[in-house]
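Q: Predict the assembly, please.
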Amino acid sequence: MNTQRSAELFQRAQKSIPGGVNSPVRAFKSVGGNPLFIERGKGAWLYDADGNAYVDYVGSWGPLILGHADERILAAVREALERGTSFGAPTQLETTLAEMVKEIVPGLDLVRFVSSGSEAAMAALRVARGFTGREKIIKFAGCYHGAVDALLVKAGSGATTLGVPDSAGVTAGVAADTLLADFNNLAQVEALAAQNPGRIAAVILEAIPGNMGMIWPDESFLKGLRALCDREGIVLICDEVMTGFRVGLTGAQGLLGLKPDLSIFGKVIGGGMPVGAYGGRRDIMEKVAPLGPVYQAGTLSGNPVAMAAGMATLRVIREPGFFQRLEAKSKRLMDGFAQAAKEQNLPLQTLYAGGMMGFFFAQQPVKDYTQALASHSKRYVAFFQAMLAEGVYLAPSAFEALFVSEAHGEDDIAKTLAAARKAMAQAAQVPA
Ligand code: KE4
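A: Predicted assembly structure:
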């Protein structure tokens, strides 16, 4: 596959942008080779600067649940654009999208829009600290909640991909207030709570992590977290930036019966435009300025064009049958990957929920960060490169999730599974 033009564009980009990318995971560092420069996308397909075409399972890291350049979203954005791009004043669109989100996700009394998932995570932590008057927070190794100082401690996604789960520049003072536990390990959380009585403001988690690969929570773990937070007066924050409106219409919390105090969202609710959101219990959210003493603000928060893209997306995905059809595609794909691995005698663990998928080259199901890191990431790299050569674009990291869209059709899935059979043979060449 000729990728000369991408290589030239990458050289040029590196002269002006750190690493030539505006987000580290895009740099292909852990999978080798140069990142592809994308010219355009349509439906399930991406087209790079050399004219190569790929069936896309990154979907801009989750937002594009309807596929690239969906006509319904483009029409909504064009209509909004005609009226102006931004006002820095309230618009009806923001209220309508907030009402749509509240209608879909139970327990959201108030919602505030921001421009990214990181911003939403930062704000949710600040509100939890302002509400409780406490300073410490608990996060889980391998969970990623955005590029937020307090949360870049044993973080997943690009931080793990690049092997820098604890970022430079995060001060000891900030990190000292971030307590760490292993995902699916309730005993560790109980011990942290016992060692820090009355000092923990919040527990934050991805209820179905997708940033150390995709991992399934133990039911007892989530139930135990909820009970512990009730008992200790700790704010339970569910990070649904990736899983919200993705693993099912009501996200991981709806799928798993979790009732968080605050939730954060992003990705799908922006339909590919910059949107994040945080919201939840009224008594907590009423601490947010201008109602209360917790300050949070943003020039482009609730941007009307972004709101229009989000509304157009939610109008489609809330229709009956949408997630059944989407999950059937995920099942076809993961079952096909498992079958292809079996033909090569390769141990493969697969997971899917709604339009989100994950797989590990591992003997046993992966339940936490340590086990994720122990999976055979070199086999992932071989598989990734072989799939790319076959025109299938997977996440350029073993520590991410994959996303299917409404636009992925039977032919796209058949092409993907044919490529997977070849790519598994390549992965099998990598010694155990
Ligand atoms: P953003 O600031 O990137 O919009 O959202 C941060 C975030 C928060 N919470 C979860 C669960 C997330 O997955 C993310 C962002 N996800 C990564 C990919 N796993 C975004 C890709 C990137 O960093 O370039």
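The radius of gyration is 21 Å. Residues 71-317 form a domain with the Aspartate Aminotransferase; domain 2 fold (CATH 3.40.640.10).
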